Write a sequence for this structure.
């Protein structure tokens, strides 16, 4: 499994597109999970990068967290704001694991408060999901073509150009 920090080192192009789109939408992404019957569910959410890890957070007790507790696989897609995908778009696939570290929760909430003003200091999160990235892709358009950059562990990034 690959942490966010490791991912930025082995897939810098895709990480840059993800980071750019994540910032441009105020952190909005779409999280795909699997329901109990195996059908897909998609939910808007705001993942955060903190201490080299991508965190899949949100309100406790949500159906997306029940989905992830049952099956930790996910897809995270940056919010696309135009049909031409002129600013790019990225997808991350992976699994989550719950991290119950109260000192980490305290550092996370302090950082969240400093960066956004949203005050969850003193809260304990259950679950608190760290994302392990298992593959990724990004799309960039321009010059009459579309470049799809694909990454899988051990393979490095590769670009497929479509005209």
């Amino acid at each position: 499994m690959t942490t966010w920090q490791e991912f930025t080192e082995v897939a810098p192009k895709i990480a840059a597109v993800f980071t750019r789109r994540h910032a441009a939408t105020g952190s909005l992404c779409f999280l795909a999970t699997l329901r109990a019957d195996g059908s897909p569910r998609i939910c808007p959410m705001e993942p955060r990068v903190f201490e080299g890890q991508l965190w899949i957070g949100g309100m406790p007790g949500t159906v997306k967290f029940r989905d992830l507790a049952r099956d930790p696989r996910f897809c995270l897609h940056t919010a696309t704001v135009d049909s031409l995908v002129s600013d790019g778009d990225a997808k991350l696939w992976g699994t989550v694991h719950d991290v119950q570290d109260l000192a980490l929760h305290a550092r996370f909430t302090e950082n969240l408060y400093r960066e956004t003003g949203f005050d969850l200091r003193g809260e304990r999160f259950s679950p608190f999901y760290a994302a392990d990235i298992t593959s990724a892709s990004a799309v960039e358009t321009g010059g009459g073509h579309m470049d799809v950059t694909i990454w899988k562990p051990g393979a490095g990034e590769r670009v497929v150009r479509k005209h």
The chain has one domain: 4-162.
